[in-house]
Amino acid sequence: MRLSLILVILRREVIDLLRDRRTLLSMIVLPLVAFPLIGFGISKFVEMTSKKSEAEATTVGVVSRASSPEVQSAIERAGLRPVVEANLRQAIEEKRVAAAIEQNGAEIHLLLDGTRIASTLVAEKLRTALAELKDERVRAGLTTLGISPTVLTPFTVKRVNVASERKMGGFLLGTMLGYIVILLMFSGGMHPAVDMTAGERERKTIEALLASPASRAEIVLAKILATVVALYATALLTLCSLFVSMKSSALMNDPKFAALLGNIALDGRTLALLLLTVFPVALMAGALMIAIACFARSFKEAQSYLTPLLLLVVLPSLLGGLPGMELTPTLALIPIFNTSQLLKAILQGEFTMLNFTITFLANITYAAICFFFAVRTFKNENVMFRS
Amino acid sequence: MIEVESLCRSFQDKKRGTVHAVNQVSFTVAPGEIFGLLGPNGAGKSTCLRILATLLSPTGGGARINGFDVQREPARVRESIGFLSGDMGLYPRMTPRELMLFFGRLSQVPEPELKRRANELIERLGMADFADSRFDKLSSGMKQKAAIARTLVHNPPVLIFDEPTAMLDVVTAGIVEGFILQAKREGKCIIYSTHIMEEAEYLCDRIAVINEGRLRMTGTMDQLRAATGKQRLREIFLDLLDRQVA
């Protein structure tokens, strides 16, 4: 193996990739633009929906003859405006009121349209207001009878989440990140791998390259490395874009969301660990994609060979994001799954060195196997010169 | 110098069984000589040249290029050859200058010499106007000039041309032919496959007719005329194919 020749081919392949619009789109534009756009779009949508719901969710329909002054007063205390309507169901359907209450003696019916957010919000406010009114009456009754209202609450139950904010934020971000980074990384490397193998064959450039002094192993290694550059650049840009858009997104206006993400360490160590975790996966993916694409006679054929690979990586990366899934030394041997799990654990600040090492070594081993498979395929005349 | 001795290449085909693409082929080509390999489509020309360029391995016999064995010293063989096919093999997003530098670097030509040689070829082939334009913007003639320059940039002693004019118009084919003759004058050892009779008659010092993987006859035009009693290469070629059918 001559490093100088590998570098010559690698340089040419990378320059070629950077001149290819389709590669630039999947490798640079998509990761850089997708997340800010998605974040901006979601936040705008949430903002619009909540404004609309809030504007709508201020009116409550009541039947004048039936609702008591106490109930009317409870509605007003909840910040809602009672409107007298003759037909409550029709008023809700025609959106004149968000929800309504119908009092029939000791029975109060809460009417709402479950398909509308505004209606659901108002119904919830009404339920809370009426529950408070009921409690007030019970307390007043007990006091009249000389019984302390505390008999109603011998003890209280309070839910305390012991998970740290970083852990919660890491769980949220890690669940998305493992899946998105791996998926985008694989799709970022797909086009370059196809272009450098089936594309070369289709353009008839492969024979001139194979007739050059570079050996097959040197050529295929350079092509794998060029694919890895594309894969890794996609992963790096995806990670950075995801981090930045999460932190700066309008979603951060939500104090709960901001508190969760705010505690995730966005330091160099975390980023370095994430990139180190992804590195052997990029090597493995590059070698595997080149090996598979070598079998194709045309660009389209190669794309159809590699598309199932994307589906194959989605499942384990999705599984890794599910709640309750934890990385153990045995599970760290499962490719892709181990990576999505480790990414989540790093963000949560909870990974162990043992799991990190096993995952890294397992993925390096798979990358080496894929590399030898790619070299064998590239050296196989029946594959390279089949027509 | 090219020395080919009992060269064979066979493969298995589901319908046809064992196919002998190249069968017991022997010939030699000296420096300063153009050796034409003439045959119909599927005769075995390209397979033979691909073996000489170490793209395919022989299943029998052997060949030496510039003293190096194609099976035992493939890297040395590739350093000694310039290989050009009719498909040209040009990267659409590269420029002719970049292509020359790329292949020159693969042949480990020292950088100052490589740049000098690239500039020299650009001048000799009249490529100055488009040397820095991408191939996807060039005409067929411009592309073929660049492909020739790529073949010659490392100054190889042996040139292997596999139907280099197959896809070209008469004017562009003329440019290629002129360059091949110039390479011959420089002492290059040239093997040239074609199925264009006039071209072979005009260019080649010796011609070998190949069909169904076997060499039917090898010789100079005069030798072929004497053996077949025909004058023009087209007639000689058809006569040799007819003999085989009979």
Task: Tell me about this structure.
With 387 residues, chain A is mainly alpha-helical. Chain A has 2 domains: 247 residues, no CATH class; 96 residues, D-Maltodextrin-Binding Protein, domain 2. In chain A, 70% of the residues lie in helices and 5% in strands. Chain A is built from 15 helices and 4 strands. A 4-stranded mixed sheet of chain A has the order 2-1-3-4. In chain A, β1, α3 and β2 form a beta-alpha-beta unit. In chain A, α6 runs antiparallel to α12. Chain A starts with a helix and ends with a helix. In chain A, 41% of the residues are buried. The model of chain A has no long low-confidence stretch (mean pLDDT 82). With 246 residues, chain B is α/β, with parallel strands linked by helices. Chain B has 9 helices and 10 strands. In chain B, the strands form 2 sheets. Chain B has a 6-stranded mixed sheet, sandwiched between helices. Chain B has a 4-stranded antiparallel sheet with strand order 2-1-4-5. In chain B, α3 runs parallel beside α5 and α5 runs parallel beside α6. The longest helix of chain B has 16 residues. The two termini of chain B are 35 Å apart. The model of chain B has no long low-confidence stretch (mean pLDDT 89). At the A-B interface, α1 and α8 of A face α2, β6 and α3 of B.
List the main descriptive attributes of the protein structure presented here:
heterodimer, A: 387 residues, mainly alpha, four-stranded mixed sheet, 15 helices, 4 strands, B: 246 residues, alpha/beta, Rossmann fold, four-stranded antiparallel sheet, 27% strand
